[in-house]
Amino acid sequence: MSLSASQVISAMNRKLTDLIDALEAHPEMQPPHAHKTIYYIWDFVQRSRHMLNQLDPAKIDTRDNAEVEDFQDILGRCAFAETLINDDSGRLTMMTGGDPSRPFDFGADVKTKARALNGRSNEATQT
Alpha-carbon torsion 30, 38, 109, 78, what sign? Predict the structure, then answer.
């Protein structure tokens, strides 16, 4: 038995919220000045959750092309967020104005939540 779009969206919303909570708990996200790199990811994930909550599950269940396309875009954003969080090349840090020779460390909790978002919760942490 497959899940309805409403069930999938609800599960994704919980996982996005878990990732947002982990990002907000990170020491580099604390006031008064959040690190630019983690703030960028936090904003990206927040926007993804907002987009997810704008979807109409009934339209996805009936295969409405525009709604399915929007849903697929959100899935792509979730995969991209995980890729960025696990980036150890320094490219993300450079993108956000940091020193690429010192990639930002999101920590194990954030990386675990990012993998869980994409259904990879049992894989080893990529560092």
Answer: positive
CA 99 to each of CA 88, 89, 92, 93, 109: distance values in angstroms, whole numbers, following the listed order? 12, 11, 10, 6, 23
Whether a cis peptide bond, with omega within 30° of 0, leads into 32 is yes
For the chain, how many residues are written? 127
Per-residue pLDDT of the chain (127 residues; tens, 9 = 90+): 688 999 999 999 999 999 999 999 999 999 888 899 999 999 999 999 999 999 999 999 999 999 999 999 999 999 999 999 998 899 999 999 989 999 999 999 999 999 999 887 644 444 3
